[in-house]
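Two entries, shown back to back:
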Amino acid sequence: MKINKYASLFPGQGSQYLGMLSDAYERFPTVRETFSEASEAIGVDLWSLTKKDNNSSINLTENTQPLLLSSSVALWREFIRSGVTPPAILAGHSLGEFSALVCAESLEFTDAVVLVRNRGRYMQEAVPLGTGAMAAILGLEQDKVDSVCAECTRKRTDGQTVNAVNYNSPAQVVIAGHNELVDEAIDALKKAGAKRAMLLPVSAPFHTPLMSSAGERLAISIEDITFKEPTIDVLSNVNADIQSDPKQIKKLLVEQISSPVNWTGCMQFIIRKGIKHALEFGPGAVLTGLCRRIDKSLICNSLENPDSLSSTVEVIV
């Protein structure tokens, strides 16, 4: 089957795992060169973080963010250098939006690596380590998750909050907030009918109002970085719409830190454009799985595996 119109997707935090991209790193010089370029930009050996005997640093967000960005860009570079027709649209989940902007030539890769490392540090420092948590809630509609979280927050008198922060699919919503209240919300959501609830391997409650100070710091850092109009349409997580103006792109990236990720809306936008295929560039297949849950008509494939990447190149018209 030939593919002549497709979207490219870029994952965010939670997709990382020890041993990620090992086969691609061995086979493709482009992948090794990309990691070397990123490591030099921030003075950190990013590839060493992926080693199977290293279990202490991969989930620390200031490391995870440049690591995932580098992974996505490395696979994209290997894919696109073959001369395939570019995608019709790009979308990245949270951090993945930076990957999408790099691949759309809106943002220089080395600038992005430095920026997301700082972004990760700002997000981590906004809430002390161990204070916040995130959890995926499965099998409960979005409106119900919103209302349960609002009720849990309303009952607190100590200022703790919990919010729905990632609308990943109609039946998968991620919540985040203070540790204790996230645990309370998990219990309440299970009682409300959630089929499953699981804590995520992240180190801060992303996309909540608790991240507002991180957004303020990111706004300062991003001001001096040059953004260009993307050469390929890129969807924003904040409004699930295309934005081409560099100033507005910066503004939305700052807002994204403390705003929910409307991933369901982004995928519905892609489907409305008549796109039936999507390719995921990054470790694992989180976004591939979400595509199936949002709309089975959108056929999505992960390209982390070298054979999958190479075979996909052959079917792009």
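entry 2 starts here
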Amino acid sequence: MAEEKSRIKIVVLDARPADVGDMDWSALEELGELNLYPNTSPAEVIARIADADVVYTNKVKLPAAAFEAAPKLSLVSVLATGYDVIDLDAARKAGVTVSNVPAYSTASTAQTAVALLLELTHHAGAHDMSVKSGDWANSPSFAYWKFPLTELDGKTLLLVGTGSIGTKVGTICEALGMKVLSAQLPGRSSKSDSPYPRLTLDEALPMADVVSLHCPATPDTHGLANTAFLAKMKPTAFLLNTARGVVVNEADVAQALFDGKIAGFAADVLSVEPPPAENPLLSAPHTVLTPHIAWASTESRRRLLDVSAQNLKAFLNGTPQNVVS
């Protein structure tokens, strides 16, 4: 059996950014001939997977033409939870199993959401830059602050999406003394098992001091945070997005920030990544942006690779796991 597995060709189309030189791929190397590519352009996909038995991809798309060009392909394992880069109809037609890695980044993403909130409310990073630029050394007083400092204790958090990540954020924020509510998502039936009181968006937005987006990108949530949504928020409220960039209408949010309609915005995701220079949020006031790092803690990436290897082992043993096709 080991000799048979050694002939399996495994292709990883985009090892970066999951691996920046600090990850161990030995679990996959034990299962076959491992071909690691840091990145793969669309024009390179077909040539690289033509004789592959197993393909791993994160953001590299596998359209129908890719499946048609890879007759030996039997498993595609996505190095992520989302799998919209795969043409699932083409995979099914070709008899290819598609697996993903669910929930590996829950803790990391929740931590990032709270870190963004703390930066909006206490500006630790901005004050660190101020100190290092000499402002404290030149201050006439022992303390100063360049922005209003906001306590979260007693404030209300509204979760728009209460899956594993949203629920984790709620747990952390409760520990900070916040009251937590959840919003009914457009196009979704009511969740009777929600751990937090559930209200309609129209009811909940005016009550919230912080609105944190954790909903999937669907036709119903595309551009959800738009002018009408923002108009229902308090002018003192903060908006967070660690969901998907397209859930936010970026032009509307930027305008609301310029007009003082909301107090601040923080996001780890944008509609186009990397963002073009003309993205209005890049120059909007009271904005904190991070480069899609919520999933990328060392521990999270290790879980990602561990489960990805387990996906292949399970498939080879005839018991595929985390199947989405």
